[in-house]
Amino acid sequence: MIKAKGVSLRYPDGTLALKGIDLEIDTGELVYITGPSGSGKTSLLKLLMGIEYPTSGSLKVMGQSIAKGQEGNIRRLRKRIGPVFQEFRLIQGRTALENVMMGMRFLGIPCRQAKENAKSALTRLGLEHKALSMVENLSWGEAQRVAIARAVARKPRLIMADEPTGNLDHDNALIILDLLTSFRDTNTTVIITTHATHLIERQENATFIRMNGGNISVERRGKAYEEYLV
Ligand SMILES: Nc1ncnc2c1ncn2[C@@H]1O[C@H](COP(=O)(O)OP(=O)(O)OP(=O)(O)O)[C@@H](O)[C@H]1O
Ligand SMILES: [Mg+2]
Fold it and tell me: Is this prediction's pTM over 0.85?
């Protein structure tokens, strides 16, 4: 699913956000990325989403190389990825249902099918009663679930959520993590960054990527234990 070899990311201002990362993630893994602020979690997700490209090293996501000159292929790859951004990126002035449907427009999914998928995603997230509400009238937690519904409605192979527990109380953070992890199956990989280490520390059957200053260490629980220290 994901293969990174010696991947570094240097931003134009010179900041070295990722320092030669080696990482392999299989289809169907549940991956938590933790680490202090500024350690490179969002930068890593941006690379995996094809929003940023490695400055050096090689990175493949679902067999597609993330590199300059691959823009068209990366655009196609991104259709198989369901991103949940930290700041949601919902379209104001539109309903929850419209926001979830928009995520499917690019895929050429017919309107009726998109509507059906959107409704069932909203229902799964407990939001069927808010389908016709304008997103600006939703609570924080509801807006977050709309953002998740938009990401999952098109049944992506790879779901990535950046800090989905931010700004949520303990109970709601747990609900969101449970929901996100419930989409993991043999075909779907789920990657979540979070500061809420206390909520995931007892989790079994998951992969933990701990980031520090652009380096990573990996621990797999429930399968063979492996560690990469770069
Ligand atoms: N567009 C950018 N240009 C320059 N530097 C950047 C850019 N985006 C991030 N950085 C820097 O890269 C480093 C890693 O940032 P990143 O956003 O990946 O951290 P993070 O682990 O997601 O932090 P947080 O927990 O606060 O979200 C930081 O030093 C940050 O200042
Ligand atoms: Mg971040």
Answer: yes
Q: Could you tell me the strand order of the sheet in which 64-65 lies?
A: 16-25, 2-10, 56-61, 64-65
Domain residues of the chain, as ranges? 1-80+157-230, 91-155
Ligand 1: residues with CB < 6 A are 11, 13, 15, 17, 35, 37-43
The bridge status of strand 81-84 relative to strand 158-162 is parallel
Nearest CA to ligand 1 atom 27: 37
Burial class (CB in 10 A: 0-12, 13-18, 19+), 25: buried
Q: Any idea which of 33-37, 151-155, 199-203 has the lowest mean pLDDT? A: 199-203
The residue whose CB lies within 8 Å of the most ligand 1 atoms, and thus the one to mutate among 42, 165, 192, is 42
- 83 forms beta bridges with 160
DSSP 41: H
CATH class of 1-80+157-230: alpha beta
